[in-house]
Model the fold of this input.
Amino acid sequence: MVKPVEFWFEFASTYSYLAAARVEDACAEAGVPLVWRSFLLGPVFGAQGMTDSPFNMFPVKGAYMWVDMARCCADLGLPFVKPSSFPRGSLLAARIAAAHCDAPWVGTFVRAVYHANFADDRNIADDGVIADILGEIGQDRAAVLAAATATEGKARLRAATEEAMERGLFGAPSFIVDGAVFWGNDRLEQALRHARTA
Done:
């Protein structure tokens, strides 16, 4: 029996941009169900004693990452612009993705937010930018925002972040298949193979 792939992502994560761009098509081609799982890396990093992105804390690693991102985006045919601010907050976007994880448009929304951040250098920490993105993909801004910012919507993201830590996630993107964790955009294919043979 084919197992679903849980795609755990954070909107500030550079390599999650790459994974988000291809995970839906890759799962469809492999015949594997996809589960969108939005969470926040801030609390995860905090639990590891970090106060910032490791790419900022370790400049040599960060410099390599930006060069690598440009190469990877070119290989995938994805537009890429180094954001003028990194990492950007993404609380509202993450709440929307968590509250509407089963909506048929969630993949479109996720990709649009990543594109805004890493291709257009738009400030996804600005609630107005997120509202505009919802309008751009044809969604009812008021209804979506109301659900995401209600007590239940906020609780879903908080619970997802706690679950991520309980299940041993330490970074994004991560894929979980039948309890097994696969970390990094370059582990998507391995996760898909596991999903078909688990």
Q: What stands out?
A: DSSP finds ten helices and four strands in the chain. The mean pLDDT is 96. The first helix runs from residue 14 to 30.
